[in-house]
Amino acid sequence: MNEDFPTGDGGSADDVPNQNTPDRGTTDRGTPDQPGADQEAVWSDDTGSRLYELEFPAPEVTGDDGDGPVLVHALEGFADAGHAVALAAEHLRDALDSELVATFSGDELIDYRSRRPTMQFSGEQFTGVEMPLLQLHAIRDNRGRPFLLLSGVEPDLRWEQFVDAVRRLSDHFEVATAVGLNAIPMAVPHTRPSTITAHGNAAELLGDLPRWGTPMKVPASASMLLELRLGDRGYRTAGLSVHVPHYLSQSSYPAAAAILVQSLATATGLDLPVTALENAAAKVRTQIDAEVSGNDEVESVVTALEAQYDTYAAAQSETQSLLARDESMPSGDELGAELERFLAAQTGDDRPDDGESGARG
After folding, report:
1. CATH code 3.40.50.10900 for 59-315+327-360
2. pTM for this predicted structure
């Protein structure tokens, strides 16, 4: 998959720095147009818009067997219920050896008015700002096998250009397989194990994971479009969607993140740590149980969700969807809204302690 690589001036892959070749025009000192060895190389897409900055020199991402790395894309936003995708990505970056490969331009891809950055204010003046980040990292698993992790905020703008840029980066680093991580709110209880639904064109990666089995139209995400376009270009693709209790979709839910990491390891053969996420999940489970216990109304809602979950599990039908509503009980939206109101009233906000410190390995 060695196609022309975007350089912003009509150049080809031969003009682009790789792991052994310095950037075209590089000098020891460097200039704004000719970066030196201690500077970042700035690459652009074919339109001339600067979509990302590439670290220079690029990290080594070829495995000992000569194979290219797996690309894992974990974008926060639309399909990140319970912040499970963000927690999983943060855990992988923090728990394993990680090197920055590229940073995408928020100015080109993010609508700051719909996703406003956070400013720090001292009481007298502004002291800092936290801008949304979208980055590509090279990470090595517990056995030293490299993979690429695309993580951060989902782009608001230029999806096709963003996807094409990721595809060209993937071509350059000889990626053959791409796996997406997603988290979706479902009418499931927190008292049952989190489950995964899989999709993609690489059946050998998905194994026995359940599929949706029913054609449907769904609102798109950048991650979905990336999976589609990469599949069209001959990549092996897989998507892992973890089910998050609807009433916890706005809270950090590390149990779902742990299942994502476990399923990613199973699908790709990567040796990935998960203990820290499991420990964080146990702490959050204890907190949620304490908040629910003693409230008869809320307990009855959880019991109803458990009954629905157990009925579905007993049926062992891949064509039956937990998205379907049971007409004998309130809808998932109604159940979720009721529990969200209760949990927010107990904690003072909508985010219980997520055990984040434990999720950082």
Report:
1. yes
2. 0.77
